[in-house]
Design a protein that fits this description.
With about 350 residues, the chain is of the alpha/beta class. The chain folds into two domains: about 200 residues, Medium-chain alcohol dehydrogenases, catalytic domain (Quinone Oxidoreductase, Chain A, domain 1), CATH 3.90.180; about 140 residues, Rossmann fold (3-Layer(aba) Sandwich). The protein contains ten helices and 16 strands. The strands form three sheets. Strands 3, 5, 6, 7, 8, 15 and 16 form a seven-stranded mixed beta sheet that branches. The protein has a six-stranded parallel beta sheet with strand order 11-10-9-12-13-14.
């Protein structure tokens, strides 16, 4: 089969590899679509961070498709079933995994799941533990459902755990309206009455944000932090930085309200000083990482109800490497790029 793999010395290559066979407790999924995430760009540069032995592995951690075969011991998943593969799975047996936090599994490190050191979904087939696949509601097309596992699940986890900052009268700033941002706006609109302020330098994406349900769309260069600071209760009760660069984190800290919350979601490797004179008093500053399979089930129900939809642009596996170059430059347009085998 054809697969896009991260090579041991760095870079991506489309290769012909054997179709995997599901082992005990595993399922084989015929891939319908796999989303391209910006973090894949970093993985392709430093694949040894996830697989130190230097052997190639298939990238892609936003995968959906149809179950083709099941291994021994699998009873709750059947062939022909549409599913989303929850990529951030662990060993499934350690105390962390058994406690419901597989994405923080210390046993599998440095690998972190499908496309994250283990073979992912940027291929014609993927094998994954049966416990890591989530049934896809019949209303959803598996071709476009994969990004709900990361581009959707990551903001969903943050928003779900930030309910105290989303009370009536609150303001939420969403910085960066790309793959994650366009879904974050829809999730916020579906689960809260917060005033949503989209912050995005691209005018097309600002207009897109308003179409998706944002109340206000601001250019970060147009005094955005001060304008947000004048809203709500002394600014944004919740700031979701979906870029994570030095500049965007600084903007988020400047826009946040006292007793607010600033969450770094994006992986641009920026930082922000934390101290009495750097962030508003009693403002929570945190990072985040994906979510769990049971949260993905909840998000899929929102999508099935028509409240969250992936805006997709389709490409072939042969076009993936060039598409990542555009993605890394921010030239990929609105929504999510999806590779269709």
């Amino acid at each position: 089969m054809k697969a896009v793999q991260a090579m041991g010395g760095g870079g991506l290559e489309v290769r012909d590899v054997p179709v995997p066979t599901p082992g005990h407790g595993e399922v084989l999924v015929k891939v319908a679509g796999a989303g391209l995430c910006h973090s894949d760009c970093m993985i392709s540069v430093r694949p040894a961070s996830y697989r130190p032995d230097g052997t190639p592995f298939t990238i892609g951690h936003e995968t959906a498709g149809i179950v083709e075969a099941v291994g021994e011991g699998v009873h709750k998943v059947s062939t022909g079933q549409p599913v989303v593969v929850h990529a951030e799975y662990g060993c499934g047996q350690c105390p962390t995994c058994m406690g419901g936090n597989e994405r923080s599994c210390p046993v599998m490190r440095p690998a972190a799941g499908a496309g994250l050191g283990l073979d992912g979904g940027m291929a014609e087939y993927i094998v994954a533990p049966a416990r890591a696949v989530v049934a896809l509601p019949e209303q959803l097309d598996p071709v476009d459902a994969g990004p709900l596992d990361d581009a959707g699940l990551t903001p969903y986890h943050v928003i779900r755990t930030s309910a105290p900052w989303l009370e009536a009268g609150s303001v939420t700033a969403v910085i960066g309206i790309g793959g994650l941002g366009h879904l974050a706006i829809q999730i916020l609109r579906a689960v809260s009455s917060t005033t949503i302020v989209a912050v995005e330098k691209d005018p097309g994406r600002r207009a897109f944000a308003l179409e998706l349900g944002a109340d206000v769309a601001l250019d970060p260069e147009d005094d955005a932090a001060a304008r947000i600071k004048g809203m709500g209760r002394d600014g944004a009760s919740l700031v979701l930085d979906l870029v994570g660069a030095d500049q965007t984190l600084a903007l988020g800290a400047a826009a946040a309200a006292r007793q607010g919350k600033l969450v770094c979601v994006g992986a641009a490797l920026g930082s922000v000083p934390v101290g009495m004179m750097h962030v508003p008093w009693e403002c929570v500053v945190q990072t985040t990482y994906s979510g769990e399979a049971w949260e993905l089930e909840q998000l899929l129900q929102l999508a099935a109800a028509g409240k969250v939809k992936v805006s997709a642009n389709h490409i072939s596996l042969d076009d993936v490497s060039e598409a990542y170059e555009r993605l890394d430059k921010g030239e990929h347009g609105s929504g999510r790029l999806i590779a269709v085998p």
